[in-house]
UniProtKB/TrEMBL annotation:
Annotated ATP binding sites: K61
UniProt-recorded name of the protein: 11088_t:CDS:1
GO molecular function: ATP binding; protein serine/threonine kinase activity
Domain Protein kinase stretches: 32-289
Family recorded in the similarity comment: Belongs to the protein kinase superfamily.
One Pfam family from the record: Pkinase
Species this protein is from: Funneliformis geosporum
Length: 400
């Protein structure tokens, strides 16, 4: 009996030695980690944690190093930006812990949830309310642009409310695709973004910079006012074709009571020529923010913006939310200089990196290579490709 007891003691001792703690001691020493999962992604999970000293709740993003192997640039980009920024409309980094197996990023909690999920629960939502939201987004982006940061993946999923109150603060998050410019006039060549919100110059590979964020905000503003996005298609190729055409409509059924000031700002933010597109600081001076009306938009937004829970892929979100409007009485004027010899019928071979690091599944799309060579994705590959670096050029240089 004594020998049997010793055997069990030996087994128990071995099991205790082999068992690894769920979290590093340096993390658990300061924070109480909740079992509440806020979100999951291809690279890890986001949980809620509480500072043991202050009682303040934070978001804990746990990045598995094995899962992100080969895509470390996305993590580095996000951390580079988070370490540099401090603004009320941008999610803030509070702590960072790294082990051999994982990276633990502690940021603002943003418990109010994603932009549209918050809006559709409201009792009232007016054009004036929408103008306040757009202004907050622009103020956050103005701070980024002033610090030479291009977000490159602005979309409703990356806009979170700080809490669930009616007047909650809106914050920009997810900087996995962001780029800190080395020089003010740097041109970025890596094709990245999310279907439906990506600017045409990104798809055309003619080089892009800060104006891509303004285009994305224009798409977000359009969606905030009617519940559907301005560009759509039956599949990804048709969606990109729609964006490349630059044509969108203000359908009478949903836009008749929305102010002309709102439509004017959308037109300026989605000007096809990036060089002529309104800047973030000029957008903040637009009269819409003082002239927006109090028409209730909630019914239209609820009708046109379906629940996001069943739409996992970004492309499915676009397909489920949008319809290309063809019966409008007001068509946007398109610049003549956007016309080219692009073959819109065949857009199947250019590999476009369209990934998102936190809440949404990663996704890769494809287009025809119109101008410059681009890294190819091996046939049958399903994992996202992360381009290690952007190619830089002065505006006067020839892009290759």
């Amino acid at each position: 009996m004594h020998k049997i007891k010793n055997i069990f003691q030996h087994i128990n001792a071995e099991s205790k030695i082999k068992k690894e703690p769920l979290y590093p001691w340096s993390l658990e020493k300061r924070y109480k980690i909740s079992k509440n999962v806020l979100g999951t992604g291809s690279f890890g999970v986001v949980k809620e944690c509480t500072d043991k000293c202050t009682g303040i709740k934070y978001a804990l993003k746990i990045i598995n190093k094995k899962a992100i192997r080969g895509k470390e640039q996305m993590l580095n980009s996000e951390l580079d930006v988070l370490k540099k920024v401090n603004h009320p409309h941008i999610v803030k980094l509070h702590d960072l812990i790294e082990t051999k197996k994982a990276v633990y990023i502690i940021t603002d909690l943003a418990s109010g949830g994603e932009l549209f999920n918050h809006l559709i629960k409201k009792g009232s939502y007016t054009e004036k309310d929408a103008s306040n939201l757009v202004k907050q987004i622009l103020e956050g982006v103005a701070y980024l642009h002033d610090h030479e940061i291009v977000h490159r993946d602005l979309k409703p999923e990356n806009l979170l409310f700080s809490d669930k109150s009616d007047h909650s603060n809106l914050m920009i998050t997810d900087f996995g695709l962001s780029k800190i410019l080395k020089k003010h006039n740097d041109i970025l060549m890596t094709a990245c973004g999310t279907p439906g919100y990506v600017a045409p110059e990104v798809l055309r590979q003619t080089g892009h910079g800060k104006p891509v964020d303004m285009w994305s905000i224009g798409v977000i503003m359009y969606t905030l006012l009617c519940g559907y996005t301005p560009f759509g298609g039956e599949d990804q190729a048709a969606l990109f074709d729609s964006i490349l055409s630059g044509v969108y409509y203000f359908e009478e059924e949903y836009w008749s009571e929305i102010s002309d000031y709102a439509k004017d700002l959308i037109d300026k933010m989605m000007t096809y020529d990036a060089d002529k597109r309104i800047t973030v600081h000029d957008a903040l001076k637009h009269p819409w923010f003082h002239m927006a009306n109090n028409i209730n938009l909630l019914n239209n937004v609820r009708t046109n913006f379906p629940a996001r829970a069943t739409l996992k892929k970004a492309i499915n979100v676009v397909q489920g939310v949008t319809r290309l409007r063809k019966t409008s009485t007001r068509q946007v004027n398109i610049n003549n200089d956007k016309k080219s010899d692009i073959n819109y019928a065949d857009i199947s071979n250019l590999d476009l990196q369209i990934t998102s690091m936190s809440r949404n599944d990663n996704f890769i799309g494809s287009l025809k290579s119109f101008i410059s060579p681009f890294p190819k994705i091996s046939e049958g590959t399903t994992d996202p490709i992360v381009i290690e670096e952007d190619w830089y050029s002065n505006k006067n240089a020839i892009l290759v």
